[in-house]
Backbone:
């Protein structure tokens, strides 16, 4: 029976080409625009580490006092050196790492001898198991290496290819800023977007992924400067010059991440942060009561506005467009169906039930939805390509068309059109056969 | 013509009328807010930076063989490298002028701090961007000096990037002077930059800060020129090309710098770029948003217009007999045309009235969630008029078809 309905539907659609084309265009553009906006939104709002994000937390300590807060009333989003080191020393979370961005260069051993600039991070050994960093060869380093500030390094896949031709380079030495570091691990290609482990310095998106990780204390000892942002309180620019001056200042430049495995651990860590701040208050370093934050990773990414407002607004506006397109389809389907009141009267008089008439028109709506969906697919493809031309640089290339997006586009088109067709179909099925036959 | 027959005729079509009105309302709400966003982005993109943008080139590079550490010897060596570069660039045939220039408007790299009238940095203050450079910075950027003088060569100091030395003299932008000295007379006064004293020797009319981020939007024209070369592994320069020689300067400069020292990082993407490219990059997102909103508005208007055409055509088809009767009873073509036009005006008017509320509501929500500004009433009113006009344009074709229904239809059965 359904096949028969489809046949009628196609025949009826052919009869009123103009109206059909209008509806297909409306659905197509509505779906195309909203799916394009969704593709961009999906790309930037995804959970970069879904299996673990609920157990990762970012502590914020109010190290500047209430007078230094901006309009948001929030404490700084990074830590001062003294606080980060205290948190690492106390080691209250299951795993934790202080993190800062470095930008050294490496001298390759090949003939070119041209230094390669690197994007790297100084971290603690627990960083790797905490964030499930995938390794091709070797692994991260242990707490002993952290404590000693051992000259070891974890390098990225791309750098390993560049320096060692992609071979297992564990145990080899790389010369970074004039010092030798022993490779202990080579990562598989790893470039989570957003770069959730340090959105403060990376801004979240873009880049080819980290080339290098060094032990925090080794980087400090080598005087490897912070390549990320540094923020200082009004009255607290570093008293002493250089990197050492930064370390003894109240300026914030270190990101921190902790793994807390259950609600009790989270509570305990909150308490610990407050105790720590109270202790600093007793010691006279903080002249205010504790005002700390401990945000889960998802909440932290929200707090840092990782998803650009423009993306959200575009998504909203595109959904509004889809809604208007659907209203439009309701209206056009209504006219299209009721125009055939005579035909409906005949069918009803010949014994078709109301639900049969209803089904017939829903099938017609589904056919339109399908055609609109196909057009929508095409437009989504164009839309994603075009979006790459106009999106901010760091977001280009993130949005992509994949099978799930295609299926979603068609499903949205068909379901939305059928939903739009529901009321007109019911109206059509209510047509009084006697009255229609009489007016014929 | 009286409205009563129109209302009576529309009563059986409540759903269709409601659908068109709702569609018009939503279209109005979205189009108003979208065009408002477009307008705001255009205003943002069109803001002047204060620099003479044509012919300005920024070179940003990093020495890969820079001395390590920040001791005095390393700083001196870095400064010598920078001065060599400046001399070489200044000698190029197509270069009019060159200056050490750590940052540039719109470019993103920013140093900033707090200016006060007393040494305590926590006193009431003015936040401002610091533009580090040498005595040629003001003229190379093409800033308009409205009072005072340029830096002299002897005033130029240099220090490591993380050094603590402060400038003794500064040139401030007019907004900084106005904020610190509302009654005027800023020239010659001493101000404190993060607690360090400096004398204002010049005032430039306008200079936008290097950042467009939200945190700097409250003071986007507060800028200070600092007579200080910053010495680090990376150094940046501003070049003013002779008229029309921008491309040549970029080629020459790259070649000349690599000839001085090939061990430097100066990629195509950010190493040597004309100011026009910096501007295009930084406003790319705004232009993209404006384009997207424009495209959506266009689609919306087309869809809504098409919907009106579709539904009105249907009504015309349904009422052929009644139209015929009216014509037979003496109504002129123009009366039928006017009838449908007035009907549409009535429906579009209802839609626009509802749309007014929706537009304001949508705007409130955007203001609350995404820090958008308040939608000016003019936008909504213009939008309402536009929707009425759109309705009239869309209804014209089916209405004209209705007016051409011959009176003889009345005598036939359908």
Residues:
């Amino acid at each position: 029976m359904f096949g028969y309905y489809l046949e009628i539907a196609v025949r009826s659609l052919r009869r009123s080409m103009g109206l059909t084309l209008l509806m297909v265009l409306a659905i197509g553009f509505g779906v195309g625009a909203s799916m394009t906006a969704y593709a961009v939104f999906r790309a930037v709002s995804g959970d970069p580490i879904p299996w673990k994000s609920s157990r990762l937390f970012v502590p914020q300590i109010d190290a500047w006092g209430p007078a230094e807060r901006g309009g948001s009333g929030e404490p700084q989003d990074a830590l001062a050196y003294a606080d980060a080191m205290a948190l690492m020393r106390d080691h209250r979370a299951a795993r934790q790492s202080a993190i800062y961005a470095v930008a050294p260069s490496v001298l390759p051993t090949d003939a070119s001898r041209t230094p390669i600039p690197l994007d790297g991070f100084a971290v603690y050994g627990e960083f790797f198991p905490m964030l499930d960093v995938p390794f091709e060869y070797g692994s991260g380093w242990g707490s002993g290496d952290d404590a000693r500030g051992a000259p070891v390094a974890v390098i990225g896949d791309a750098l390993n290819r560049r320096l060692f031709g992609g071979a297992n380079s564990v145990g080899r030495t790389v010369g970074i800023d004039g010092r030798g570091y022993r490779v202990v691990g080579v990562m598989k290609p790893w470039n989570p977007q957003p770069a959730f482990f340090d959105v403060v310095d990376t801004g979240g998106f873009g880049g080819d992924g980290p080339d290098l990780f060094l032990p925090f204390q080794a980087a400090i000892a080598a005087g490897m400067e912070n390549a990320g942002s540094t923020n200082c309180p009004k009255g607290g620019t570093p008293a002493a010059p250089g990197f050492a001056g930064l370390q003894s200042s109240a300026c914030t430049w270190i990101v921190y991440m902790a793994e807390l495995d259950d609600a009790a651990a989270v509570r305990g860590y909150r308490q610990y942060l407050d105790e720590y701040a109270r202790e600093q208050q007793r010691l006279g370093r903080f002249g205010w009561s504790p005002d700390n934050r401990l945000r889960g990773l998802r909440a932290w990414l929200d707090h840092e506005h990782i998803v650009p407002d423009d993306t959200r607004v575009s998504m909203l506006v595109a959904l509004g467009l889809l809604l208007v397109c659907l209203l439009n389809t309701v209206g056009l389907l209504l006219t299209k169906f009721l125009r055939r009141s005579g035909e409906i009267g005949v069918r009803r008089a010949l014994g078709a039930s109301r639900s049969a008439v209803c089904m017939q028109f829903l099938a017609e709506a589904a056919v339109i939805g399908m055609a609109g969906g196909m057009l929508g697919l095409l437009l989504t493809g164009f839309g994603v390509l075009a979006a790459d031309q106009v999106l901010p640089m760091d977001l280009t290339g993130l949005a992509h068309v994949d099978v799930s997006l295609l299926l979603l586009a068609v499903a949205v088109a068909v379901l939305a059109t059928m939903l739009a067709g529901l009321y007109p179909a019911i109206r059509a099925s209510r047509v009084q056969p006697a009255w229609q036959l009489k007016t014929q | 013509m009286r409205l009563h027959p129109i209302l009576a005729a529309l009563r059986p079509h409540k759903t269709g009328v409601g659908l068109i009105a709702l569609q018009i309302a939503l279209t109005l709400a979205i189009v108003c807010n979208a065009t408002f966003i477009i307008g705001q982005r255009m205003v943002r993109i069109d803001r002047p930076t204060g620099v003479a943008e044509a012919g300005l080139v920024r070179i940003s590079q990093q020495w890969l063989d820079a001395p390590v550490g920040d001791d005095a010897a390393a700083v001196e060596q870095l400064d010598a490298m920078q001065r060599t570069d400046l001399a070489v660039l200044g000698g190029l045939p197509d270069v009019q002028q060159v200056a050490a220039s750590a940052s540039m408007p719109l470019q993103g790299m920013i140093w900033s701090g707090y200016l006060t009238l007393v040494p305590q940095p926590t006193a009431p203050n003015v936040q401002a961007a610091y533009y580090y450079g040498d005595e040629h910075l003001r003229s190379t950027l093409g800033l308009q000096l409205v009072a005072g003088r340029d830096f002299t060569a002897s005033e130029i100091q240099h220090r490591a990037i993380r050094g603590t030395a402060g400038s003794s003299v500064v040139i401030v932008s007019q907004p900084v002077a106005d904020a610190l000295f509302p009654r005027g007379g800023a020239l010659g006064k001493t101000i404190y930059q993060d607690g360090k004293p400096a004398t204002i020797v010049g005032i430039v009319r306008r200079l936008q800060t290097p950042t467009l981020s939200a945190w700097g939007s409250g003071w986007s024209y507060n800028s200070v020129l600092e007579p200080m070369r910053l010495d680090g592994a990376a150094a940046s320069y501003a070049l003013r090309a002779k008229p029309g020689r921008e491309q040549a300067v970029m080629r020459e400069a790259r070649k000349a710098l690599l000839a001085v020292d090939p061990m430097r990082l100066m990629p195509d993407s950010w190493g040597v770029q004309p100011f026009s490219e910096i501007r295009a990059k930084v406003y790319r997102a705004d232009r993209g948003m404006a384009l997207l909103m424009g495209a959506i508005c266009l689609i919306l208007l087309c869809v809504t217009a098409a919907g009106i055409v579709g539904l009105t055509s249907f009504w015309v088809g349904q009422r052929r007999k009644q139209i015929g009767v009216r014509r037979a009873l003496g109504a002129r073509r123009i009366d039928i045309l006017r009838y449908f036009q007035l009907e549409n005006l009535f429906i579009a008017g209802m839609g626009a009235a509802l749309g007014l509320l929706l537009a304001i509501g949508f705007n409130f929500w955007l203001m609350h969630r995404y820090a958008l500004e308040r939608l000016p009433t003019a936008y909504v009113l213009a939008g309402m008029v536009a929707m009425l006009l759109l309705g009239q344009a869309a209804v014209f074709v089916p209405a004209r078809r209705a007016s051409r229904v011959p009176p003889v239809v009345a005598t036939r059965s359908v």
